[in-house]
Amino acid sequence: MAAAALGKIFLLALALVSVIIAERRSYNGYSVLRAKVDNLKHFKVLSTLRDESNFDFWSGPLYGKYADIMASPEEYPELTKLLNSHGIPFSFMINNLETVINQTDALAKTQAEMNWNEYFSTEANYAWLEGLAQNNSNVQVLNIGNSTENRVIKVVKISSGPSNATRPALWIDGTTHAREWISTTTATYVINQLVNNASAHRQILDNLDIYILPIVNPDGYEYSRTTERLWRKTRSILANTTCRGVDPNRNFGYKWSGEGNTINKCSLTHQGAAPFTEPEAQAVRDFILGSNVNWQGFIALHSYSQLWMTPWGYTEDLPRNYQEMMRVANKSVAALAAVHGTRFEAGSSANILYQAKGISIDWAKGVPNITYAYVIELRDTGRYGFVLPPNEILPTAQETWAGIRILAEEIAGVEQD
Ligand SMILES: *[C@@H]1O[C@H](CO)[C@@H](O)[C@H](O)[C@H]1NC(C)=O
Ligand SMILES: *[C@@H]1O[C@H](CO)[C@@H](O)[C@H](O)[C@H]1NC(C)=O
Ligand SMILES: *[C@@H]1O[C@H](CO)[C@@H](O)[C@H](O)[C@H]1NC(C)=O
Ligand SMILES: *[C@@H]1O[C@H](CO)[C@@H](O)[C@H](O)[C@H]1NC(C)=O
Ligand SMILES: *[C@@H]1O[C@H](CO)[C@@H](O)[C@H](O)[C@H]1NC(C)=O
Ligand SMILES: *[C@@H]1O[C@H](CO)[C@@H](O)[C@H](O)[C@H]1NC(C)=O
Ligand SMILES: *[C@@H]1O[C@H](CO)[C@@H](O)[C@H](O)[C@H]1NC(C)=O
Ligand SMILES: *[C@@H]1O[C@H](CO)[C@@H](O)[C@H](O)[C@H]1NC(C)=O
Ligand SMILES: [Zn+2]
Hints:
There is one protein chain. The protein is globular and about 65 Å long. Helix 6 (182-196) crosses helix 13 (393-412) and helix 10 runs antiparallel to helix 13. It folds into two domains: 31-95, Alpha-Beta Plaits (2-Layer Sandwich); 122-231 and 252-412, Aminopeptidase (3-Layer(aba) Sandwich), CATH 3.40.630. The strands form two sheets. An eight-stranded mixed β-sheet has the order 5-6-8-7-9-12-10-11, with helices on both faces. A four-stranded antiparallel β-sheet has the order 2-3-1-4, covered by helices on one side. The protein has helices at residues 2-21, 40-52, 76-85, 97-103, 122-135, 182-196, 202-207, 218-226, 279-290, 322-340, 349-352, 360-366, 393-412, and strands spanning 31-36, 56-59, 66-71, 90-94, 139-146, 152-158, 168-173, 209-213, 294-303, 307-310, 345-348, 372-378. By secondary structure, it is α/β, with parallel strands linked by helices. Residues 6-11 and 13-22 have low confidence and may be disordered. It binds 2-acetamido-2-deoxy-beta-D-glucopyranose (8 copies) and zinc ion. Involved in the digestion of the blood meal. Its cofactor is Zn(2+).
């Protein structure tokens, strides 16, 4: 008991010291291990580990593929012992995480300039969006809500109008999960193509309104930029715990669960105390339901794993128009691959990733009944994972736009070859 109390005091002191000397969390000596998941026994062991431990599973376990697991230097012996004791083969995906993080820092640039060679702060992204709206009569910035820490949640509407209740519309959002920075840069690239390369996309713009929310979770994104690179959730304050944040992609109110590890407030996939506790998820819901818009498409951008997925996440059963969503998804992944040769897999979320309840595309399909709903897990397949270097921002955006364009053309009724 005395030892435990002393331990606690020591940890407290350590926490204080680390707050004072380093505002930014160090990932020095952290590794990310890739465990092979080539049989059902290993899949079950790793699923249980994900659900019952505090290990940060960057990805998976994906049956027949892999699980990527982050470990601090202190956790490393425990993790490798566990993997070895079950005969689960593993390799290093990332050796020293801090080295990679140091190469991918988001710049705190705030001028209204944009490029796709660097990551930018929320403020810099917003300044750019406002500039686009000032300069282009078909661009509007809509403030659809405020985050827990009172950051504005900004949607860009691109419309050659006139908008009405029958004109089809496509929704695209990014950075629901704070550490998935590549989803914001991909979203802003799409905005830039539609605004500054409009003549190449006339047919889409003439027949379709496009709404893009590049940063669903600005609190989490800023926290990831400034303090803890691998932060995933929102920054909401929870009752009876020092752990913070809810997984916004478990907080949507369709087949929201109340099961498993998502009840655990410290879990990376904490669902919240009830559906739509998070203002960020509320903002998306209220805007989609409150607007008099003919929503035909809903795309949620995430990373990583290179997957182009339809609902459902909550069940392995398939939604009513699965075949139609897959027909378009297959065309999208083919168009994507044609750009830089990057291979994506298409399928339903529960079948090719894993079951997850309360995800935004399930809500988009289940409640507003949006025809085409997809979650896209962008690059890569595990060289860098969440800490994708800046030189992959542009090619990722280019190829993803080629895939998204297929959907936009389908919805806009543009003839394709
Ligand atoms: C990462 O950058 C920080 C801040 O510049 C530096 O203190 C640290 O030594 C770097 N770490 C590695 C592993 O390069
Ligand atoms: C808007 O136009 C001004 C004046 O031409 C220009 O300086 C600025 O870069 C433009 N902003 C954006 C975001 O295009
Ligand atoms: C966000 O907060 C501001 C200032 O508190 C308020 O004026 C605005 O209405 C809020 N936005 C939404 C969409 O709730
Ligand atoms: C809505 O706008 C489209 C063009 O975007 C037009 O073809 C259609 O007739 C309009 N519908 C109504 C009800 O005004
Ligand atoms: C504009 O879009 C066309 C068609 O996708 C593409 O070929 C061209 O490279 C784009 N231009 C720029 C400057 O991105
Ligand atoms: C917090 O703990 C108190 C006392 O145990 C309990 O009454 C309350 O329901 C808890 N609140 C939540 C949100 O868990
Ligand atoms: C999509 O592609 C997969 C793999 O090539 C194929 O098995 C499936 O039948 C295709 N689905 C549709 C609806 O075209
Ligand atoms: C969803 O939309 C489809 C196509 O318009 C329609 O057939 C179906 O009845 C709708 N489902 C619900 C639950 O509203
Ligand atoms: Zn995600």
